[in-house]
Amino acid sequence: MSEAAVRLAGRRILLISQHPYPAHRVLRRNVDFLAAQGAEVDVVCLASPGASTPPPPGVRLHRVPLAHRRAHALRYAFEYLAFFAAAFVCALVLSLCRRYDAVQVENPPDFLLFTALPARLRGARLVLYLLELTPELLATRLEVGESHVLTLLATALERAATAVADQVITVSEACRRRVEARGVPADKLWVVNGSVPTRDLPAARPALPGPYLVIVATLIKRYGVDVAIRALAALGPAGAELRLLVLGEGEERPGLEALSQELGLADRVVFAGLLPWEVAMAQVRAAAVGLVPVVADGYGELILPTKLLEYVALEVPAVCSRLPTIAEHFRPDSLAYFEPGDHLGLAAQVGRLLADPDAARRQARIALEDLGELSWERASQRYLAALATASGEQPATALASEDAGIATG
Quick one: 292 and 163 in the same domain? Predict the structure, then answer.
């Protein structure tokens, strides 16, 4: 694809996201990348507690001072509505002050896209970035079926948002297929996964003395941190000197700490909390093994975890749940697979990799090969193409066809 097809230099882009900048890594990646292309970017987002990193030149931040808390579903509803109201006012004022070429809105919630309607009335094209599939996510979290009124409402809101959007970005081929099956035309769907630029990955800096396992995840049931803790206990004497570093925060932390205490692992499971991305990745790089124990809860089957892509890019051998979307992209010998929820299987794979460092390094190299099509260097070209019409350029049809072929394999 020619550079002219996706040139963004001098274009004005408004990005609306109910995530904090720079704490949310995908939001930060997208903003920094657009700025590097020479675009003028206004960002309406959540405030990032303790953030001191200034945005790159050409980026103006408009932060909404709303604290995010993982709690009851009513709290989520309140946060969504409060942010929607604040973002709508902010986007209205901004769009009256300047004319945007494109507005990119990240979900959740899907209806956040409608905060961009004032900019649309002034000629902006709309891009909806589906970081999550809300109907499936809601059904899994509330443990309800597809026919439940809330699932149907979420599906209706997603369909309305995708119908209004000029282009729609999803984060995996599995998600793209789901959205297409719900009626979104294939020619406005793109896949841009959660990978990060390799140049941003930090040098090694050991976080713990001796060998350790690492898991980077939001501490909710879906990410299976309890499975990892039980696996550490199952290693027995073979893992007596091994520690587990848990990087992340979430509603399950008190229960996970209690589980560690119950299994006699209180001094070997280290809950480091939510760290700046650069610090977290430096600690990941020094780990012996990275863990991805995502459970098969109805939504875990659809995700391609960003943290898995980071482990692979850092050449850290990974032990991973065997789930459809992950297995679609990574061969059996590139990850040490185990059945979701099986802590004994996870322990066996960890023990095997620790006992054979050469095999662990070989697995990491194969995974790095598989990362090729998922790397940011490739994904960024799809991201640019997805924004091509919004930036005032004609998108490269050939690239869309080529990447569809890559995605479907």
Answer: no
**pLDDT in 10s for each residue of the chain, 409 residues:** 344 335 678 899 999 999 999 889 999 999 999 999 999 999 999 987 666 678 899 999 999 988 777 666 677 788 999 999 999 999 999 999 999 999 999 999 999 999 999 999 999 999 999 999 999 999 998 888 888 999 999 999 999 999 999 999 999 999 999 999 999 999 999 999 999 887 778 776 666 667 899 999 999 999 999 999 999 999 988 788 899 999 999 999 999 999 999 999 999 999 999 888 888 999 999 999 999 999 999 999 999 999 999 999 999 999 999 999 999 999 999 999 999 999 999 999 999 999 999 999 999 999 999 998 899 989 999 998 888 755 555 544 434 434 443 333 3
391, 166 contact by CB (below 8 A): no
The total number of structural domains that make up the chain: 2
Per the structure block, which two tokens stand in for 24?
Answer: 């949310």
Task: Return the beta strands (E) in 94-196 as ranges.
Answer: 102-106, 125-130, 167-170, 189-191
The CATH number that applies at residue 334 is: 3.40.50.2000
Whether residue 301 contacts residue 225, with contact meaning beta carbons closer than 8 Å, is answered with no
Region label for 275, one of left (φ > 0), alpha (ψ between -120 and 50) or beta (otherwise): beta
User: Can you give the residue range of the structural domain that contains 204?
Assistant: 198-372
Same domain, 253 and 314: yes
Q: Based on the domain organization, do 260 and 308 belong to the same domain?
A: yes
Strand ranges for 180-332 from DSSP E = 189-191, 212-216, 243-247, 269-273, 289-292, 318-321
Q: Which residues contact 249 (CB under 8 A, 6 or more apart)?
A: 218, 219, 273, 274
**Same domain (yes/no): 135, 215:** no
Tell which residue, 284, 233, 227, has the closest CA to residue 252: 227
143-181 burial string, b = 16+ CB within 10 Å, else e? Answer: eeeeeeeebeebbebbbebbeebbbbbbbbbbbbbbbbe
Domain shared by 269 and 356, yes or no: yes
Say whether 72 sits in a helix, a strand or coil.
coil
Q: What are phi and psi of 393, to 5 degrees?
A: -110, 160
| pTM as predicted | 0.88
